[in-house]
Each structure stands twice: as C-alpha cells, then as structure tokens.
Amino acid sequence: MSTVEADFDRLALLDDEGWTTNNQYHDSLLKHVPEHCENALEIGCGTGAFARALARRCKRVVALDLSAEMIRVARSRSSQFENLEFQLADAMTWDFPQSHFDFVCSIATLHHLEQRELLLKIKDALKPRGVLVVLDLVQSDSLTERICDVVALGVSGGCGYFTTVDCSHRPKCGRRGSNTVNTIRI
C-alpha cells in the first residue's frame, strides 16, 4: 500500500459530510457539466460527494479512487444512485475508454499523479466537445504568479486555481495554445 493510499484510507473516516474544504466549489464546478450529459467520470472521488452531485445531472457516472476506504464510504453513502459506479482504481493504470465521456472532473487529485501522461489519457477518453474540469493545487513558478498567490491568500484564505479546459478542439487538447483554458484565481 502506498503512503498516499494509506493517508486517504484514514481521511475517509474523519466525518459524515466529507473531510475536504473543496466541497465548497462543487456548485461552481457543476456549472460546466454539459447539458444532456450521458457519461461522466470523476478521478479521485474520495467519499463520493461530487460524484453524487454529478449523478443527479448525468445519465451515468463512473467515479475512481485509489483508496479502498474512500470507495467503501462512497458506496455506503450512495446506495440510492443506480447510475453511479464507484471503482477502486489507480487512474494511471485504469483502462480509459476512447471517446466515451462528455465530462471528466478531478478535484485535488492531479498533483499526486504524473499529469502529462494522465491528461493525454483523459483527452482520448473525452468525446468531441467533451469538457474537462480540474480543481487542484499548482506550483507557482514565476514572480507574477507568486504575487497573485499573495493577493489570493488575502482574498480566499488559501491559494489555488479553478481551471476548466474545453477540449472541443480535441486533436491537440492538452498542448499549449491549442484549446480554451479559463483560469480563475481563488
């Protein structure tokens, strides 16, 4: 068992409403779910709070997590959703179906993974005009980014990015300058 997996197994037991402060962003993230969404995927679903919200909007939702305890808790809280499937899986080795998902989301997960490799898999799994939404931690590299971090810290009490990537121009999605990227400092 990896350290990350063991840590998240312990976090799954912390509370009934979900242990993460990222839950406050769910409504903002849900605004990006396409109308008439057939298939959605959440990578790093934790205890399933966002996956349940997706299941209210999408025909079918698959939610992945590396932590067996997170998946156990998510399933126990989600029995009323027949259109929601939780899978114990490592996103890096999971068999992504080609051109299958209308919507893919990852909340506070990508920083644990090899991002370039995973983003290429996600790109291939999205249908044409599919939407990828990522809420995660980032490392600020430039002086401008670090100044924005200080400003953001005063505004939100924490730093991060809310980023949506519209993969409607799929051939080069994931490569700089080839898609629409909206980033809002939070």
Written description of the protein model:
The chain has 186 residues and is of the alpha/beta class. It has one domain (3-185): Rossmann fold (3-Layer(aba) Sandwich). The protein is built from six helices and seven strands; from the N terminus they run ααβαβαββαβαββ. It has helices spanning 3-11, 26-30, 49-55, 68-77, 115-125, 143-156, and strands at 39-43, 60-65, 84-88, 101-107, 126-136, 161-166, 180-185. A seven-stranded mixed β-sheet has the order 3-2-1-4-5-6-7. Helix 3 links the parallel strand 1 (39-43) and strand 2 (60-65). The longest helix has 14 residues, at 143-156. The model is unreliable at 151-186 (pLDDT under 50).
Question: Can you tag this structure with a few keywords?
Answer:
186 residues; 7 strands; globular; alpha/beta; disordered C terminus; Rossmann fold
How many E-type strands?
A: 7
Structural class: alpha/beta
Biggest sheet details: 7 strands, mixed
Amount of helix: 25-40%
Radius of gyration: 16 Å
**CATH level-3 fold name:** Rossmann fold
Kindly report the average pLDDT value.
Answer: 75
CATH homology superfamily? Vaccinia Virus protein VP39
Strand arrangement within the widest β-sheet reads 3-2-1-4-5-6-7
Task: Quote the beta fraction.
Answer: 15-25%
Query: What number of structural domains do the residues give?
Result: 1
Query: Architecture in CATH?
Result: 3-Layer(aba) Sandwich
Distance between the termini: 33 Å
CATH uppermost class: Alpha Beta
Q: Low-confidence stretches at least 5 residues in length (pLDDT < 50)?
A: 151-186
Overall body shape: globular
Helices, by number, come to 6
Helix-strand topology string: HHEHEHEEHEHEE
